[in-house]
Design a protein that fits this description.
alpha+beta, 5-stranded mixed sheet, BirA Bifunctional Protein, domain 2, Rossmann fold, Translation Initiation Factor IF3, 3 domains, 11-stranded mixed sheet, 14 helices, RNA-binding, about 500 residues
RNA sequence: CGGGGUAUGGCGCAGCCCGGCUAGCGCACCUGCUUUGGGAGCAGGGGGUCGCAGGUUCGAAUCCUGCUACCCCGACCA
C-alpha cells in the first residue's frame, strides 16, 4: 500500500495525489475533472459536515435546499457576479435525447431546445435571492438564516482531487438582515465558526483576514477568509464569509418595511466551506507514511488488530478485542476491530497507518498473558506496551493529546514559515527559497498587487483581522507609505 | 487554450525504435499446504477486442494517417 509511495520532498504534488488515491479517499471518475469520493473519504467529509452543521444550528441557522438549475437570466442581474462566474458555468440547453437517425447511438434532440437555458449552479446567491424576495415583506420576516448542503459546478480549466474539481460538495449559508450592522456581524460570526472548526476539529491553524479587492467574491462588498499554510509552503483558502451589502437585494428587488414604515433593501451575507477542506486536512498533517487524521475527524479513532497463530489464540484475542471495542464505544470513541482472518497483522498495520487512524491497539497472546496491549500513535509513529487496566482512560487521554499535538505541530510549522520581510530583494528570496506566509507592507493599491503577482506569483492572501495599524512602513514593492503588514503567499 | 506524457488482464508496468510463432512481468485474484508481534512462503491455476477508426503488409501491440480520453506543467479560479 505505502510501497512505492513518493515522499513529500521528492515530489509534493505526486505525494498528494498518491495519498488521496492510495488511502482510498477518492479516485478519478470517467468525467474530466470530476472525482468519486470513496467511502473512507466520504466518512471524513461526513465528520466535517456533522461538526459544522451542529455549529450552524447552534448559531441559529436552519437547513434548506434550493435548485441545482438556475435560469440564465438570473445571473445577469448582478453585474460583478456574472462577470466572476461566467467563464466557468456549465449550461443546460436541451431536455431530451433521441436515437440517431443514422443508427449511431444517441444524440441531443434539436427539437428539445430549452426556451431559456439553465445554468448549473456555481453558487446559489441568485436563485436564493430570487426566492427571498417572496419571503420578505416586513422587518418581522428578518433575519433569514439559512444554510444548504449541496453540490456546485465550476468548469475549471485545471483540476486537482479535492482542491479543485469541476463538481464539488459544500455548504453555503445565505442570510438576510434588516440592518447593515447585523449582516456585518453575521459575516464575521461565521468566519469565527470556521476558524473555530479549523482549529478545534481539523487541528489546523488559520489566519483570519479580509480579501483585497482583487481577491474578493464576485458581488461582495467585503470577503472575509481563513487562510491555512500547507506543508509545501503554499497557502490554501479554507473558507470564506461575505458581507454582500445590498447588492443582491437590489438586483433581485428584495425590500422590506422597517419599523419606521420605510421601504428598505435587505442586507445580506453568504459563507461557505467545501470538500476542499479535505485537501487542507491532508496537506496539513500527513507525512511520508501516509495520511494522518486528527482524532476529532477520523472515521476510526482507534483500530484494534488481533495477533494470533492457533485457532484458540484467535478466539481469545478476538474476544478481548471485542471487549475493548465495546468499552471504548461506550465512551463515544469510534473503533474499528479489524478481525479479518484474510490479512496478516503486518498488512493491517501498514494499511491503517496509511489511512491515518490516530491510535492502534494490537493484542496478541503475549498481551493476554501480561495483561497489556501494544499502543501505537500515528502522529509520532511511536509504540509502547500499556497495561490493559486503565486502558479506557489511556486511550481517551492519548486521543486528546494527539489532537493537541497535531495542532501544535501545525502551528510550529506555520511560525517557522511565516517571515516578516522589509525589502523587495528579501521578498523574492524568501518566497523562492523558503515559501510560506510573508508579512510585508503594501501600499494598498491593486496595481502594486498585480505587479507583485506578475513578478512572483505571490498574491495577498488577506489583510489580517488583527491588522496592526500602529506599525506604519513603506510598501515592499513601491516604497509608498503603508499602514500595516499584509499576508503574501503563493496559493492553491 | 499552449507544452509534455500516457492509453496493453482488476491495478502498476515491460514489449513498440528494428513487424513474425502461444503478448510477458509484479501486485491482486482462485485452490492447496505451511504460516501469523511490521506489508508471509511454496506449488498449481484463471483472466487481455493491446484506447477507437482507417491504412500499409503474407503477417501489426509494434509502421503510417486521423480521432478520442485521461494525467502532469502553465495561463484562469475556491
Amino acid at each position: 500500500m505505502a510501497k512505492n509511495f513518493v515522499s513529500r520532498e521528492e515530489n509534493y504534488s505526486q505525494w498528494y495525489n498518491d495519498l488521496v488515491i492510495k488511502a482510498d479517499l477518492a479516485e478519478y471518475s470517467a468525467v474530466r475533472g470530476s472525482m468519486v469520493i470513496k467511502p473512507y473519504g466520504y466518512a471524513i467529509w461526513e465528520m466535517m459536515q456533522a461538526a459544522l452543521d451542529k455549529k450552524f444550528k447552534e448559531t441559529g441557522h436552519v437547513n434548506a435546499y434550493f435548485p441545482l438549475f438556475i435560469p440564465k437570466s438570473f445571473f445577469s442581474k448582478e453585474a460583478k457576479h456574472v462577470e466572476g462566474f461566467a467563464k466557468e458555468c456549465a449550461v443546460v440547453t436541451h431536455y431530451r435525447l433521441k436515437n440517431d437517425e443514422n443508427g449511431k447511438g444517441i444524440v441531443v434532440d434539436p427539437d428539445a431546445k430549452l426556451e431559456e437555458e439553465l445554468i448549473v449552479r456555481p453558487t446559489s446567491e441568485t436563485i436564493i435571492w430570487d426566492t427571498y424576495r417572496k419571503w420578505v415583506q416586513s422587518w418581522r420576516d428578518l433575519p433569514i438564516l439559512i444554510n444548504q448542503w449541496a453540490n456546485v459546478v465550476r468548469w475549471e480549466m485545471r483540476t486537482r482531487l479535492f482542491l479543485r474539481t469541476a463538481e464539488f460538495l459544500w455548504q453555503e449559508g445565505h442570510t438576510a438582515h434588516a440592518t447593515k450592522q447585523e449582516a456585518e456581524v453575521e459575516a464575521k460570526k461565521m468566519l469565527g465558526v470556521y476558524t473555530d472548526f479549523a482549529k478545534n476539529f481539523m487541528a489546523m491553524p488559520v489566519i483570519q483576514g479580509v480579501k483585497t479587492e482583487n481577491e474578493r467574491f464576485a458581488g461582495a462588498i467585503e470577503t472575509y477568509c481563513i487562510e491555512a499554510l500547507m506543508q509545501d509552503g503554499k497557502a490554501l483558502q479554507a473558507g470564506t464569509s461575505h458581507f454582500l451589502g445590498q447588492n443582491f437585494a437590489k438586483a433581485f428587488d428584495v425590500k422590506f418595511l422597517s419599523k419606521e414604515n420605510k421601504l428598505e433593501y435587505v442586507w445580506a451575507t453568504s459563507w461557505g466551506v467545501s470538500t476542499r477542506l479535505m485537501g487542507a486536512l491532508i496537506m496539513t498533517h500527513s507525512d511520508d507514511s501516509g495520511l494522518v487524521l486528527p482524532p476529532k475527524l477520523a472515521p476510526f479513532q482507534v483500530v484494534i488488530i488481533p495477533i494470533y497463530r492457533k485457532e484458540e489464540e484467535r478466539l481469545a484475542v478476538i474476544a478481548k478485542g471485542n471487549q475493548i471495542k465495546e468499552e471504548l464505544e461506550k465512551l463515544g470513541i469510534r473503533v474499528k476491530h479489524d478481525d479479518r482472518d484474510t490479512q496478516k497483522p503486518g498488512y493491517k498495520f501498514a494499511e491503517w497507518e496509511f489511512k491515518g487512524v490516530p491510535l492502534r491497539i494490537a493484542i496478541g497472546p503475549r498481551d493476554l498473558k501480561n495483561n497489556t496491549v501494544e499502543l501505537a500513535r500515528r502522529d509520532t509513529l511511536s509504540k509502547s506496551f500499556t497495561p490493559m487496566d486503565g486502558l479506557n482512560d489511556t486511550v481517551v487521554n492519548l486521543l486528546d493529546e494527539i489532537q493537541n499535538n497535531l495542532y501544535n505541530k501545525a502551528i510550529d510549522f506555520r511560525s517557522e514559515h511565516t517571515t516578516e520581510v522589509n525589502n523587495w530583494q528579501e521578498f523574492k528570496e524568501v518566497l523562492e527559497n523558503k515559501g510560506g506566509f510573508i508579512l510585508a507592507h503594501w501600499d494598498g493599491s491593486s496595481e502594486t498587487e498585480d505587479k507583485i503577482k506578475e513578478e512572483t506569483k505571490a498574491t495577498i492572501r488577506s489583510i489580517p483581522l488583527d491588522y496592526d495599524e500602529s506599525e506604519e512602513g513603506k510598501c515592499v514593492y513601491s516604497g509608498k507609505p503603508s499602514k500595516g503588514r499584509v499576508v503574501f503567499a503563493k496559493a492553491y
